[in-house]
Fold each of these.
Amino acid sequence: MEQEEIVLGSHVSMASPDFYLGSVKTALSWGENGFMFYTGAPQNTRRLPVSSLKIEEGRALLREHHIPDKNILVHAPYIINLANLVKPSVRELALSFLKEELERVAAFSVPHLVLHPGSSLGEEKGKAIQAIAEGLDEVLEESSSSVTILLETMAGKGSEVGSSFEEIAAIISSSRHQDRLACCLDTCHIHDAGYREDDIDSILEEFDAKIGLSRLKAIHLNDSKNPRASHKDRHENIGYGGIGFATLYRYVHHPKLLAIPKYLETPYVGEKAPYAKEIEMLRSGKYIENWKDTL
Ligand SMILES: [Zn+2]
């Protein structure tokens, strides 16, 4: 049997006039066999009707390249905060947006939506975790889709919830819909949260003990601009940060992670997208010193 190819892609924008078709074309041009996108601007919740987003054209192009829909991931806007107990009206808006977002994700035939769990905004962590789990239950109960929500591991910036595997596990175990919840591990975030991200075997052992490896559905593969445990969350290009190429390469090719799709969210270099180069190096293992200068 032919070995399945490692799924490696990046964040790709979705813009007028080609929308999803354009996203697929861009991802293919960077040598990607999967990608992640926002259904609109990441910083707001305004969304166009899915019928205008050239979804079928994009999916047809994916099929032409033998890329299954499951290689694609949607990222929810980062302003969504299910733990906002300070302003209930804001939380209500987040809930109604997420309900609609699940339907949108389903319209793309994408199986997973990645979500930042939320920020406690000075409230007790335990209360925030309950609020997130209750919010997720409400959203999942009112959705006709079968989309799974991936809770992302966070750097612990400000009052972020989800900067430890325990907190992610606590959200999942507080939910009535654990079958619809899973996890996305971000290498920059766990590094910034204080984990020894370079000891992958120990990371996976701990992840398995606390959350369960079967719930690991995606990896955000990023280097970090800051030292370990800085709680900053600033992504850096592959090989230029505190994690380094060797470790990130090992995440891509680790035997226990071969089936998990990986997505880069590294910064542009000036106007230029770094992804084709980063992906080529991460596939081949051949790192080019100062590769940014060659873009
Ligand atoms: Zn994220």
Amino acid sequence: MTGRVIAVASGKGGVGKTWFAITLAQALAQEGKARGRRVALLDADLGLANADVQLGLAPVLDLGSVLAGRATAEQALVAHEAGFCLLPGRSGSGTLAGIEGAALDVALGLPRQLAARFDEVVLDLGAGLGAAQRRLLAEADLPLVLGTEEPTSLTDAYAVLKLLSQDAPARAPRLVVNMAAGAGAGQRVHATLEAATRRFLGRGLTLAGVVRRDAKVPEAIRAQTPLLTRHPTSAAAIDVAAIARGLAAASVAA
Ligand SMILES: Nc1ncnc2c1ncn2[C@@H]1O[C@H](COP(=O)(O)OP(=O)(O)O)[C@@H](O)[C@H]1O
Ligand SMILES: [Mg+2]
């Protein structure tokens, strides 16, 4: 078996990448539960990993332990009651941003290693696109680029799309618009970005979906409880569930 690697990237920080990656993992797990589909979330934000904090976990082992050879990925995985397993990125000692050599090879191999056991492997790539993150993004089966309506987010999302078109011209990325005032506003963001990719990169851009701005999101994060557990009928929960259904259908069709 080999699962699918879905990478969530944005360029800009603070656009909701970690929150979205967690919520997508939970939605994919719920969507695939009846079919026994297994989902893993890899916190690959090498600089500022914090998926474990949003999930209220205090892991003993993490990506740092795995890269240092102190633990296997298997040992570092934590099962969350939301229905997926997390490989935490948080390192008690120092940053992982500058990893190189053997550790870098281990990091780059992790998504595929997890995909041998899981049907869906969601990667939270974190802000910025260093060499390691750029490779992780280019090697993902499905690169998801997350953006908001803010002009700075749009230019950063475009920069990520441009790098991807160079690094992995055959991979078709999809756009997620987060914190949108409404579906229409999100679609306008997509139209703007797609006009740019068509004009300058010579290719279109599929919209994976729009997630509305929702006060329930920061509330759930403060409570360190996943949104689909705490507020399953909130606007943002409904939007992410719809995106997960679309992505699940795409994987069945592929
Ligand atoms: N759809 C949304 N509606 C409202 N707030 C959101 C939404 N998505 C994310 N946020 C808020 O954005 C902040 C940053 O989220 P985070 O996942 O840490 O972003 P990133 O990983 O991109 O830095 C969080 O405090 C979260 O509450
Ligand atoms: Mg983050």
Amino acid sequence: MANDQPMITYGKGKQMPLSLYKKRHSLAHIMAQAVLEFFPDAKPTIGPPVENGFYYDFYVSRPFTPEDLQRIEARMREIINKHVDFVRREVSEAEARALFKDNPFKLELIDGLVQGKSDEFGEKTQANGAPVITVYTQDTFTDLCRGPHVENTREINPDAFKLTQSSGAYWRGDERNPMLQRIYGVAFDTPEELQQYLHMQEEARKRDHRKLGAELEIFFFDEEVGPGLPLWMPNGGVIIEQLEALAKRVEEEAGYLRVRTPHVTKEALFLRSGHLPYYADSMFPPMTLDDGERYYLKPMNCPFHHKIYAAKPRSYRDLPLRLAEYGTCYRYEQSGELFGLMRVRSMQMNDAHIYCTEEQFEEEFLGVVNLYLRYFKIFGIEKYVMRLSLHSDEGLGKKYVDNKELWLKTEDMVRNAMRHAGVPFYEAENEAAFYGPKIDVQIFSAIGREFTLATNQVDFAVPARFNLTYTDRDGKEKTPLCIHRAPLGTHERFIGFLIEHFAGAFPVWLAPVQAVLIPIADRHIAYCQNVAAELRQHGMRVRVDDGADRMQNKIRKAQTMKIPYMLIVGDKEQQSGAVAVRLRTGEDLKAMPVAQFLENALRLIREYSLALW
Ligand SMILES: [Zn+2]
Ligand SMILES: [Zn+2]
């Protein structure tokens, strides 16, 4: 990503170009000014820049209407065109309290600032010493703020932002607090980028995985089954099987061994792994069996794989040991957090654990990174970002295993491996896993939307909790390192991504139905069935549409279902052992011998090609 310009880290380890951050943040202030002009009683609370734009929360007598947003937006343009300065000023605590004496929300934020507990967005900080309180003023509006801002509104293109929506939000996200009204805006450097973003949003609506998932009969949810528990229909079942076949093939080539582990297990295992009690909120509540033992649904596969490692004595000759499983896990996501396939309560994970020595670490880690890249190529994922997530010294012993030396060493090992892989990455402090540094992977769909894929984690702590050892060359017992990885994430999230990425038009190898045979008249049905049988013998997924519909309707139906090939059969084709091939794009390849169609289709499937012909 934009490595040529200075970046700023905001929120929870996210990054944005500094210049854009200043513009978005300044727009939030300008919006607050405009809102106060129309709603003098409104109380501005917090207004941070966010990904793609900004928002501001107001305590106000009534919700904002679309007409309000239009007026506010127009007024913002006027303020921007006045070319006013943003002026920073340090103030004493007393002065700050006097300035915001009519705004209890700002006074609460000042309390947090003075106590060094939180910043002006109410986000937790670890600031030390007496805080410097600053305010920024533009035109008629002054806000409690640490900046940074643009120097003058002339830096902001008045046509490169737009207010998108307004909705209710509780003060500090707590439903016991007063309800505020939040206005969202999107903002970019140029009007072109804004238009591109708005177009992408429109495209994303059309490609919504929940909408397409239903239309293409891939998955659904059922009230009697429960929220967050997807049911995969036959088309979804095919996609899952194809992904697993791909993973199995790729992983076998890379020396992985496949294992299987149960879905429920005794409490003791998760106590040992450290998931309990800390992770209990994210797990389904336990069930007590008649032996008095408490059992849990597994939230992850790691402890089971550790047990398989420990099932027999290991020597350095056994390492690296790579155990893989498409393991089904259960997590108790809050019902408000559930979202289509993106946030679910049952998930099938492309999981594996690699146990290796320190000397083997870099090569193994590289191998995993290369696996990610190989998959990206297969799925046509052209844009991705990798982030090396590090510990923080303050978090040692709390958020992170208390062993600074080991942290620095493993972080260095990962950093070196990444550099040697030649993959661009950036680093973020205080974002690691409890037991080691990790690589977080973001991928972007064909329309540029960002998805969080799985992480690639190094674990230097848990193997010891499970007493995992190997006998080294020198006869000494040592503890292996463990790499947790899941390049394809979970089926749920990854298929959700793929639906958007391909707009439901999956590549031939992945398409639930690859070809549909369409007889022009009933006398062609038997021939179609023979051709279908032949294609199936070669492993193709084929259907014959022998329904009563007219041919044009059958073609339209197949196109709606995004079936790659429509093979149309009339007298001419039947007599010459041919099919007339139409692609789902509408392109007509005309008649060709069945053998010719088959040969090309099989080649595309074999090569995991993204091409349709
Ligand atoms: Zn501010
Ligand atoms: Zn794991």
Amino acid sequence: MTTKEHYIITNHPCFNESAHHKFGRLHLPVAPACNIQCRYCIRKYDCSNESRPGVTSKVLTPYEAYERVKHISGRDNHISVIGIAGPGDPLANEATFETLELINKEFPELILCLSTNGLLLIDKLKDLLRVGVKSLTITINAVTTETAEKIYSKVCYSGYCLDNHEGVRLLLKNQWTGLTLAIEAGLIVKVNTVYIPGINDGEIPLIAHDAGKAGANIMNIIPLYPQAEFIHIERPSHEMLNNMRAISRQYIPQMTHCRQCRADALGVLGEDRDMETEMLYSILGEEQYDRVC
Ligand code: SF4
């Protein structure tokens, strides 16, 4: 591991359990558009692959996002990571790159991070590296097209929505090839997998195996939040989740401290302030905020 990789892993609250007590992250909701439809996603809320269920973030322009970083970094020196995780897919939004470029120029010490469904990862990898992204989360829920067709109902690429079989084939190819290319390019990579009982249970250990073999750093298995087309599927119990993590851990380290952040989250994991509470915090000041809120 290079010194740079070591620095990212030890200072990033998602990649290192002990860092999540010390370091915080700021998520910038600049990316509303998405290019696929996951059957468990309701698009009026933030992307379900990374975000807390049922939450909608107010979208910021790149300049507003930059101003937010400036404002917060002047006051909170625990923030080590700036992430873009939605509310849609960051790679499907040009605003993502404009935002990261602005921030990287002014705050090169901050770790830039991004989450994606992976469809555009091959196409956008060069841009990610150019704007200074250092760590990446890719949500991969399947290895076979049969399972992927059960999970995704639409894939749109280059301005067209494809026939679903072709669409999921392209999605899987781009996710897995993109994962390998991102690792080869030196990015620190986390794989998120939504655990959907009866749909992808059989493939999660395979995802863990292939992701670990490709060199991904960590895997985060997220229990399905039943909604949209999957409202009838029961959320996996803690026991089911722990068993799945135990099986998958033989191939790749497992993340167990995930708090499913909001797309506008701020702070240390588990002590989030969203944009509204943040505004209140700046108006009231720390002492009064703690008393009132
Ligand atoms: S990638 Fe995220 S925003 Fe897009 S459909 Fe899937 S869960 Fe929803």
